[in-house]
């Protein structure tokens, strides 16, 4: 059995994440036009890609400030040459030694939603900027934006510290990911901005110099004007994915990554092929489609320059640890002998990219 | 802010997978009593744990034959000293060079459900044992067990090859994972054994020497007698998880792993704590509980010797990339200051262990 002579990527032996440089750079240009070109800092969240080469493209585009979601990721990016890093996950005492070390190497920002860590950071002389995390509706971490007294208390505690600098307010409107209309996302954004303005008014003069940092891909993608805030930390919009596509925040051809998966089984009677490409590659994140079924990816045709969606829907319908089951019309199925590659657009690119890492990725 | 003086695992700084040696060894002893003690080979699936130390415990218990789910995992385990390895994922032509190399180092078995690869393996002189994969109802990979002609054809093709040895029939009753009663699992097992017996009868004399290899944790856990087959390849039963617990295949105290996650946020008003421990640690596999909600883990209290479940249910109710949100009664919540550790039993231990790897694990 020979592979077809024009089979793309003959060097790929195992599931491999393809990263499409042109799409990624276009996604970056679009957000830079809306942010840095308008005086808003774009501080991309590196958790989506975690890829040194994508980081270099960002540097070449003039990006100097980044967001990460763990101390480990901060240390890794400091090693890659980044000098200004926000860790957008609340820090805790078990990390103090490493936090203190890192704060000597780079300009470091942490987020807090309570006073307990202030004394600890002070005691260990950790020189960091502190963002006060607000809960603007997602109910994950953060002080409820209406809780003026707690926020005022935290600001005062930070301001009396010799090592901490209060930077301002940071939030992640995670609940934006549930919206699927531009109008709803715009309304939610305005609601949050209004609530933060009210907070600042209640806090009085001291709040006027505090900055605002927002972080979600839906608003960053849908809104034409982001100048209500000082900083945008979105990360997913670098790659996008089927979730963002379904929510209307990107087009299918703006999705910048695709899993190249070798075909390991052909089942024409079932209208299915099975690939080596499972939950440990794509993640087990599912997407509920309009007809109520859950899919784990969408198959696309690969070619040397990238990929092309099929005219008929070709979903990944089942996913176990290493296997993916893809529904495919019979004409397409005939084109995939054992060992050929099919592409899969991921449901949630952050989790797929974390699973694949740069070690199992290929920039095209 | 100091951590409580009796806080367990003071050395842990980041999410860490705890592996409880005593529980794992008891799980292993139980399956060895049912298999090797009765003349059935136990060829554990290493994909669940992928941990060199767990592998050594297996070797100390006399286990010499293993199953893996990828060629990469086979190469890794050959390096760890394993000499007899079945790759329970259909092979394909892109892997030929590495397959050929590995087949010179260890006794290697592959699985096939089509004739196309036979000529390729023959041409490249890959000396391997071949299991014919049967689809006994899970509709993932495998030849339908009723399709006698296709199976006969494949056996003949393998037998005429100079390099391949036909070992017998292998299947994975993936549909067993949907059952939650011992009787249903027993009935399904009997149905499969009956179908394979029918197949052997239809094939005639040539089939009498062929072996049978079965692979699911539900049957391996629920059935007292596994002597219908020659080999059991279950892997999950080494660790078990909430999925297997919900299905009645293990007790809660037979679950051998637990994610130790640092508390990063406390929200008494919501009855919730937030931990550093998210989808990149636990995986995004959800479990639908009897009341219809989806959970991503169950919180337990950690102590130096292991963990203890709470008397009230304490589920992980939301999971993002690095955050986990845990519902906790107010009395328990009070015991978790920022930076303390809480344990999380995983929904699907195979995916959690793959995410954490041995690099982020700790044997206790």
What does this structure look like?
The structure is a homodimer of 364-residue chains. In chain A, 30% of the residues lie in helices and 25% in strands. In chain A, a hairpin with a 4-residue loop joins strand 11 and strand 12. In chain A, the strands form three sheets. In chain A, strands 1, 11, 12, 15, 16, 17, 18, 19 and 20 form a nine-stranded mixed sheet that branches. In chain A, strands 2, 3, 4, 5, 6, 7, 8, 9 and 10 form a nine-stranded parallel sheet that branches. In chain A, helix 3 packs parallel to helix 4. Chain A folds into two domains: 219 residues, TIM Barrel (Alpha-Beta Barrel), CATH 3.20.20; 108 residues, D-serine dehydratase-like domain (Lyase, Ornithine Decarboxylase, Chain A, domain 1). The longest helix of chain A has 22 residues. Chain A is an alpha/beta fold and 364 residues long. At the A-B interface, helix 5, strand 11 and helix 12 of A face helix 5, strand 11 and helix 12 of B.
């Amino acid at each position: 059995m020979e592979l077809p002579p024009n089979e793309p990527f003959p060097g790929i032996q195992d599931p491999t994440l393809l990263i499409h440089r042109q799409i990624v750079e276009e996604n970056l240009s679009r957000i830079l036009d809306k942010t840095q070109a308008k005086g808003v800092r774009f501080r991309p969240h590196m958790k989506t890609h975690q890829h040194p080469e994508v980081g270099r493209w960002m540097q070449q585009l003039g990006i100097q400030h980044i967001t990460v979601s763990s101390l480990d990721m901060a240390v890794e990016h400091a090693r890659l040459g980044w000098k200004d890093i926000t860790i957008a996950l609340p820090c805790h005492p078990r990390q103090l030694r490493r936090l203190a070390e890192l704060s000597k190497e780079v300009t470091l920002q942490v987020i807090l939603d309570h006073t307990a860590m202030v004394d600890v950071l002070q005691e260990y002389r950790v020189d960091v900027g502190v963002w006060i995390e607000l809960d603007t509706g997602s109910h994950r971490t953060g002080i409820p934006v209406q809780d003026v007294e707690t926020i005022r208390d935290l600001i005062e505690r930070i301001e009396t510290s010799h090592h901490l600098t209060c930077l301002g307010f940071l939030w992640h409107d995670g609940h934006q990911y549930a919206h699927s209309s531009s109008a709803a996302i715009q309304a939610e954004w305005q609601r949050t901005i209004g609530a933060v303005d009210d907070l600042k008014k209640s806090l009085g003069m001291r709040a006027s110099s505090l900055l605002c940092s927002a972080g979600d891909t839906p608003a960053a993608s849908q809104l034409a004007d982001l100048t209500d805030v000082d900083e945008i930390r979105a990360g997913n919009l670098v790659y996008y994915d089927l979730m963002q596509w379904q929510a209307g925040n990107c087009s299918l051809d703006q999705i910048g990554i695709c899993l190249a998966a070798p075909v390991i089984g052909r089942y024409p009677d079932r209208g299915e092929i099975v690939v080596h490409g499972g939950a440990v590659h794509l993640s087990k994140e599912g997407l509920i489609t309009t007809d109520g079924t859950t899919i784990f990816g969408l198959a696309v045709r690969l070619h040397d320059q990238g990929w092309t969606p099929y005219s008929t829907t070709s979903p990944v319908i089942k996913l176990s640890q290493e296997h993916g089951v893809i529904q495919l019309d019979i004409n397409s199925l005939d084109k995939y002998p054992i060992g050929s590659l099919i592409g899969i657009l991921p449901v949630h690119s952050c989790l797929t990219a974390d699973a694949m890492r740069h070690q199992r990725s290929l920039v095209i």
